[in-house]
Amino acid sequence: MDHAQPKPAHPPLSTPWGEALDPDAVLPEHPRPQLVREGWLNLNGPWQYAVTAADADQPHAWDGQILVPFSPEAPLSGVGRQLQPDEALWYRRRVCLPEGFRRERVLLHFGAVDQSCTVWVNGVLAGGHDGGYLPFTLDVTAALDAARGPARDSVPDRGAAGDTEGVPAGGGPAGGGHEMVVRVRDISDTGSASRGKQKLERGGIWYTAQSGIWQTVWLETVPRTWIRELVLTPAPTLDAVTVTVHADGGLPPEGDAAVVVRADGTEVARGAARPGAPLRLQLPQPRLWSPEDPFLYDVEVSLGEDTVHSYFGLRTFGTGKDGAGRRRLLLNGQPYLHIGLLDQGYWPDGLYTAPSDEALASDIRTARELGFTMLRKHIKIEPMRWYHHCDRLGMLVWQDMVNGGVVDGRAPERLPLPGRGSRSDRRYRKFGREDAAGREAYRAELQATVRLLRSVPSVAVWVPFNEGWGQFDAADAAAQLRRLDPTRCVDHASGWHDQGAGDMKSLHVYDRPFRVRRRWRWGRRAVVLSEYGGVSLPVPGHVFNAETFGYGKILRTSDELTEAFVRLHEEQIVPAVRQGLAATVYTQLTDVEDEVNGLLTYDRKVLKLDADAVRAVTAVLRRAAAES
Q: Which PANTHER family match (predicted)?
């Protein structure tokens, strides 16, 4: 197939962590910090790959090596190829299990694979998954024990048995370890599947489409009865936690799970939890979680022969009135101003995949050091380690759901002015949502996202829709979120096409003055400026593309950018906070491809404006909220 490949960026960019990447130790940290057990094997590193027609069998010859978990479009993958909708991407490697690794069951985990995949182990169909942003697990115990050779549901002809050059191998079946094969399809933005801001024809606010494995792949071994999930919910009274243990494989003879909670290494609570039934544990002298004091309690849970380690933060979210009767966001029962940044989670060398765990933490740490207390994770679900860093460093998270729909998936109104009447999002055709199957897939993904992140202390707000992209029945989505998770707030329609639901009147304002209108100030919902700013500055030597994009005038110097940032906040945002504005989300943390409106350059090497000036602005915002 002779598909045109995208033109290379100008000039190529890399992050400090990408430049220091060790291909033999790619993202080696445990990928699931809230459910850690001994007995796991990281499968990141070099795999074989090939690209075929979508309907082709597994290739006899492989195109080369790909560095997992970087997608083939990412420079760090070593491939540099855009997968097309009529193609299939194949992966293969052999895995040797360390001596003594196996217990009764072996689980194969994928952090995320974009968009749809099928997995074979030793030629046996192990399972598959649809959706490019959520983790999934396959029990491969039987497949590991299977003899190599033709079998029902086996993968098509696998080619030469000895074709493993450069791929990790070891003892096991067929004399080369256990063979794992993954087949991926990605139709990107040519259908209604959820894909975030990826687009095959990237540019402006749309970014390079990526495909395939983009989060850690790993094996885990468990006993016959094993702990599948922990749900950790702080009590509204802020003096207890509810622990629910979900298990697979039947109950052990003793039945209950032993739960121990520790604070700074000292046991503070213990109890016995029946799997599936909530256990409330009272916490003496409770220490609350907040961005100023991100204290985390440690949890150990044992069920039969299985033991896992986790953590939680003791905090509550909600809305309530301040002394003047205006609706505010609450943290631990008190008004708390969310001073946020839009965070796209893209990297020039890894695309969706950060080049290292420290790179993930560095973005959060930089935002904290500048005085921000919240990141709005924009139309992307991150690896669980990103949320772990928000938990331990003290950063609130507004979590966007991932959008779908056809074309751009939004009603044809370019930039609605604040307060202008919104379109009804039950007009599915206007929003690119006529596909009933696509709408149902979104609802299922919304539920799975909540299930994945519901125990994360830092996640404060769910955002089901952004600017009408793939929006439909947003009021119903808000109600669904309320049923699934009544402990957090909902911004049901961020920026455009407000359906009157959720906890927030949510506004996006670029390149025009902003003020809190009088009729909004004492409403039942908090007023939030969920996107604004976007002031742009390209830094020579640190831009992704010769053609840059920004809102309004493109500035020339760091001093100009600093002055514009300070003036915007002094003249508009600080007065708005005094008038009842409950949260701010400045666009944005970093440049992303053509967009040059970040505080940091895309390669994270340059902070583009004066750090002390930014810290002074965020301090004034906090004072304005405290005084209003």
A: BETA-GALACTOSIDASE (PTHR42732), BETA-MANNOSIDASE (PTHR42732:SF2)
Q: Which residue has the tokens 């906040």?
A: 569
Distance of CA 279 to the CA centre of its chain: 29
Task: Detail the DSSP E strand segments found in 314-441.
Answer: 317-321, 327-331, 334-335, 338-343, 374-377, 396-400
Q: Over the stretch 483-504, which tens digit does the pLDDT of each residue have?
A: 999 999 999 999 989 999 999 9
Residue 54: pLDDT band with limits 50, 70, 90 = very high
> Is pLDDT above 80 for 157?
no
CB atoms under 10 Å from CB of 16, counted, come to 14
Contact predicate 311/241, CB 8 Å: no
The Cα–Cα gap between 498 and 315 comes to 29
Distance from C-alpha of 609 to C-alpha of 555, rounded to nearest angstrom: 12
Q: Per-residue pLDDT for 62 more than 90?
A: yes
| Strands of the 240-248 sheet, one edge to the other | 226-234, 240-248, 279-282
Q: Is 513 exposed, middle or buried (0-12, 13-18, 19+ CB in 10 A)?
A: exposed
Residue 547, judged by CB atoms within 10 A of its CB (0-12, 13-18, 19+), counts as exposed
Confidence of residue 166 (pLDDT cuts 50, 70, 90): very low
Distance of alpha carbon 496 from alpha carbon 499, whole angstroms: 9
Number of Cβ within 10 Å of residue 308's Cβ equals 23
188: which DSSP letter?
G
Which H or E run includes 127? strand 124-130
How far, in Å, CA of 179 to CA of 170, rounded? 10
Q: Which domains does the chain have, with CATH numbers?
A: 16-222 (2.60.120.260), 226-304 (2.60.40.10), 317-382+395-440+459-627 (3.20.20.80)
361 φ, ψ (degrees, to nearest 5): -65, -35
